[in-house]
Amino acid sequence: MLYLRLRRFAFRFCYWKYIVARLQLRSVGGCASDRGEEPIMKQASFASLCAMLAILTACGGRNTDLGPLPQAVFNTSTSQSDLAAFSTLRIREFPIPGPSAVLSNIVSGPDGNFWFGIGSNGDSKIGRITPTGRVTEYPTTAYDAHGLIVGPDRNLWFIGGACFPLHCVPAGIGRITPSGKVTFFATSQCSFIQGLTVGPNDNLWFQFVQARRDGTLCVPPASASLREMTIAGKIDASFDEPNLCCRFDQVASPTAYGPDRNLWLANYDSVVRVTARGATRSFQVSNGSVFGMLTVPGDDSSLWFAENAGIGKITMLGGVTQYSDPNAPNDIAAGPGGVWFTNNFSNAIGRITSTGTITEFAVPKSISPVGITEGPRGSLWFTDGAFKIGTFTP
Q: In which band, very low, low, confident or very high, does the pLDDT at 375 lie, cut at 50, 70 and 90?
């Protein structure tokens, strides 16, 4: 169990490193956990990093046995007959034109189209695909455009930047209009941004980690904060959050705006609630490494989160329920019948209902689902590691 979990973590870490670093790095710095472990990624090449991560604990996550967690009702579709049944969902895939690249998350835009980040050898673009499969790409000045959301102004907003040894570039927040006009608000050199979301005051909120000059994140004297930015690009507030640490190994956003009008942050073995005035409270998550938060429309009592041990939910009072799943998700999204998730290591797409029933569907090996979002009329759309956009209706 430990070996499989480490191997799965290693694959996802390396995949997201590719998204962030574009395989151009000569060396990579890790991040330490809030318990102070030092980075372990010091190899001279990306290949040696992947080999190390297959056998070592990385970046502060807990790779321990699940323990007595509530067991979900787990339905797995892996047989040939089940694969045939899955094909009745009528998966359609649209190739992205141009040279092969890596796709990040995908969101349903205010214009009825779907938007996603594209990266290739340091090149950064925002892609748009219509429901009929027509693709348009827009170049950006940001490095590694990812983490797209729909903003309060009905534009698309995204994260740009990355920071590793010998490869520091300015981080920032970007905006692209439905017509394709791009604006980038740089923050500072050698920093990392994650968890972009719309929050209190209808402003943009994100987690900001300032790195040391050698590019190392999340160890002293690095600093972390939660920041509020207006749609004009002005930083209105900044709250120090010293226990935050970077999570660039997953697609799901580690920040969500809850129905209680507070911000909720995924922070490894805990979920942190932050008020608009910066007051925080941390809720422990057993045997988990939490990395993604999700608000489900119509659910006013809880938020869902993704973790290495499966999927869970937390009430506004901090009550935690966890559902173990051997195939930990990469991204999560609200959809018909519950919360949907992707797993590009096991080539699967799954769904969990409000009562914890998990149904996971194996997909052909040619498909490697990464990001996922809900579309119109009960459809779901996802980015494919094979440089395609896929869609199906359950």
A: very high
Q: Which CATH architecture has domain 2-392?
A: 7 Propeller (2.130)
| pLDDT of the residue at 335 | 94
> Cα(292)–Cα(370) distance, rounded to whole angstroms?
14
Query: Over the stretch 226-281, which tens digit does the pLDDT of each residue have?
Result: 899 999 999 887 887 756 655 555 678 889 999 999 999 988 788 999 988 888 89
Which residues are within 8 A (CB) of 319 and not within 5 positions of it... i.e. 6 or more apart?
none
Q: Please say whether the beta carbons of 183 and 232 come within 8 A.
A: no
Q: Cα(375)–Cα(120) distance, rounded to whole angstroms?
A: 26
Residue owning tokens 């009702």: 73
Question: Using an 8 Å Cβ cutoff, are 228 and 235 in contact?
Answer: yes
- Cis check: omega of the bond before 68, within 30 degrees of 0: no
Check if the beta carbon of residue 15 is closer than 8 Å to that of residue 251: no
Every domain of the chain and the residues it spans: 2-392
Which stretches within the chain are classed as H helix?
A: 2-21, 46-53, 80-87
- CA–CA distance, 98 with 387 (Å, rounded to integer): 10
Cα–Cα distance for residue pair 196/184, rounded to 1 Å: 14
In angstroms, the CA 325 to CA 289 distance is: 13
Tell me the backbone φ, ψ of residue 16, rounded to 5 degrees. -70, -30
Tell me, yes or no, if the pTM score tops 0.90. no
The secondary structure of residue 269, as a DSSP letter, is S
Q: What are the CA-CA distances from residue 309 to residues 1, 4, 226, 353 (Å)?
A: 11, 11, 26, 17
What whole-number distance in Å separates Cα of residue 128 and Cα of residue 137?
6
Amino acid at 387: F
